[in-house]
Amino acid sequence: MSMTQTATAYVRLVNRRIGWLMAMAGLLFIAIVADILVGPAFLNVLDVLVALFAPDLSTDPTTKVIVHSIRLPMTLMAIIVGASLGVAGVQMQTILGNPLASPYTLGFSAAAGFGAAVTILFGWQLPLVPQLTVPVAAFLAAAAACAIVYGVARLRGVTSEIMILAGIAALFLFQSLQSLVQYLAAPEVLQEIVFWLFGSMLKANWFTVWVSGSILIACVAFLVGDVWKLTALRLGDERAQSLGVDVRRLRKKTFIIVSLLTAGAVAFVGTIGFVGLVAPHVARMLVGEDQRILIPASGIMGAIIMVGASLASKLLSPGAVVPVGIVTALIGVPFLFALILGGKKRHW
User: Fold this and answer.
1) CA angle centred on 268, ends 326 and 22, rounded to 5°
2) How far apart are CA 263 and CA 269, in angstroms?
3) Counted domains in the chain
4) Is the pTM here over 0.85, yes or no?
5) pLDDT digits (tens, 9 = 90+) for 148-178
6) Which range marks the domain in which residue 289 is found?
């Protein structure tokens, strides 16, 4: 094959992957409109679109309040959480070289749940901003889990195998501590803890959207400069090093970014499982390993899963909202089985 033919084939491949990316973005837009449309109060599709894109032209103040003050923050929070977990999951799988690696399976989400549960159990409150007590505790606990995993790995050498084993140990540790807290809690406190652990978008507001969104944007900005290094890392540590990549430094930097993404995602909405595990696999099957396209594809796919789960949580129980963490698990488990049975080994 000549150089011209090779270049043409490469351009076609990139264009096809960008096409998949645009198709995913279109699907996400449809899911967003549907999620805002569905709820206890019936809204017209046209009224929702006008309230979203031309609020000054909207003639129904009730629709504007419902869309902008209630439903839009919940939907945007679902997008941010899904995108954060999708990006965190694909980076975790990249630096560890393991298809089962994700923030949930390596204990970060469990640590956030433990931090929130302890705060709820003892009734601790921050002096000036008591409403941020649980999110801050969840964020700090997730960061502590990251420090534990990385500290253990550094003692034994920062390799993917050691980090995976340390993450699994952290998962069991924090799940056990969660169970202990639930055992000690009074019935009314236990109910609050369990509801937080299930994961829900009901507490989303414009402040939580701003905080979690800022963390997502900052972390993705840091990843952009390392897209070629991360793509090279998928070839293996030795080949990446031969290409001039400082594997140990890259793994450390990316691991910190993953912990921040996870903590920012779950601090306000609770434990969300399977999104960070499933979304990268779907994105990888569609667009391949090029991190320039894989990172946004994983984020968009994670957002699609989360918004879809939010929509399903409203449809499953009209008049009430099923915790979205339950829905992601119900969707994620069979989807993961399908990936295992139908996936191609070439991706790993």
Assistant:
1) 70
2) 10
3) 1
4) yes
5) 887 887 777 667 778 888 888 888 999 999 9
6) 25-347
